[in-house]
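Researcher: I'd like a candidate sequence for this fold, 320 residues long. If you have to choose between options at a position, lean toward the conservative one.
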């Protein structure tokens, strides 16, 4: 079972450069959250702050009563046992085969016998579809397989919080779809709290329960998937629908002249909200909500054609 992660008024700078300020949100226990935003907005910095690799300037990060931002090294060591982390490139040890890479956290942080370690490693490798590849070196397999091996390693200590940095980086659309389905299936099985950092708009539209958008040194919006996908907020609308018209430009923010030139341009209609991915076994996840529930409860009319199979295909076609 996952745990809540509560972030209050988090601020981080490097020297005089402000990365983001006053970020507040709660990652709900057992749900899949996604954090996205233009390049350079500090998404990976946010992940590092959550696990205590970077200390924020102000604010708190509460996990089961412990504030990651101000706790002692001993307390931080204990809280980190709740985490599993999938780094952007898998972060495999190149001289170790996949089995030893996945076994590494168990050998470092537990007193389990090699027999017990083998059972756990093989279970997690089976979970990510890598049985039969355990004796290959990272350099002998594809980028997608390295990411799955990194995911198996992140799972061996049975984390309650899983942090995933750019899982689709370097993957083609087919492999990205496979890994998206894997995240859904894993969440259904282990019920951990997921936070995924990604740029992939299609993944954001079909995978998460919650979406956050970092922009212009602050958290522009965070909330249920349907809330953001139906939002008229210019930044949210532009980013989630991969549009050129809006406040985001090539250098993060457009200047006044660029915005003035666009003021009479008619924005395209919001695309239909696709169905959220379901577990492969067809059994809904604990945190999965009925399609359209948030819109209905909040009196929001979703874009025409939402929550149909056709909307799912239309969302997939945006990816190209």
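Model: Candidate sequence:
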């Amino acid at each position: 079972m996952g745990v809540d992660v509560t972030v209050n008024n988090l601020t981080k700078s490097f020297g005089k450069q402000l990365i983001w300020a006053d970020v507040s949100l709660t990652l709900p226990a057992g749900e899949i959250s996604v954090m996205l935003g233009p390049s350079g907005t500090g998404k990976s910095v946010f992940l590092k702050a959550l696990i205590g690799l970077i200390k924020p300037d102000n604010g708190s990060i509460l996990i089961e009563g412990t504030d990651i931002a101000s706790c002692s090294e001993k307390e931080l060591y204990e809280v980190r046992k709740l985490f599993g982390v999938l780094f952007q490139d898998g972060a495999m040890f190149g001289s170790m085969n996949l089995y030893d890479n996945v076994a590494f956290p168990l050998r470092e942080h537990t007193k389990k016998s090699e027999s017990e370690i083998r059972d756990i490693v093989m279970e997690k490798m089976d979970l990510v579809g890598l049985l039969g590849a355990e004796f290959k070196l990272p350099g002998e397999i594809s980028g997608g397989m390295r990411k799955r091996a990194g995911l198996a390693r992140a799972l061996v200590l049975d984390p309650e919080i899983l942090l995933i940095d750019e899982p689709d980086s370097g993957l083609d659309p087919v492999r990205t779809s496979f890994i998206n389905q894997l995240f859904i299936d894993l969440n259904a099985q282990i019920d951990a709290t997921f936070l995924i950092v990604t740029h992939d708009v299609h993944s954001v539209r079909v995978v998460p329960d919650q979406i956050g958008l970092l922009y212009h040194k602050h958290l522009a919006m965070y909330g249920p998937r349907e809330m953001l996908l139906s939002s008229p907020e210019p930044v949210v609308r532009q980013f989630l629908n991969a549009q050129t018209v809006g406040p985001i430009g090539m250098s993060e923010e457009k200047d006044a002249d660029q915005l003035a030139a666009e003021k009479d341009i008619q924005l395209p209609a919001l695309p239909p909200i696709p169905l959220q991915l379901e577990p492969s076994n067809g059994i809904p996840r604990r945190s999965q909500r009925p399609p359209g529930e948030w819109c209905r409860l909040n009196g929001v009319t979703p874009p025409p054609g939402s929550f149909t199979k056709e909307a799912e295909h239309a969302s997939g076609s945006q990816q190209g």
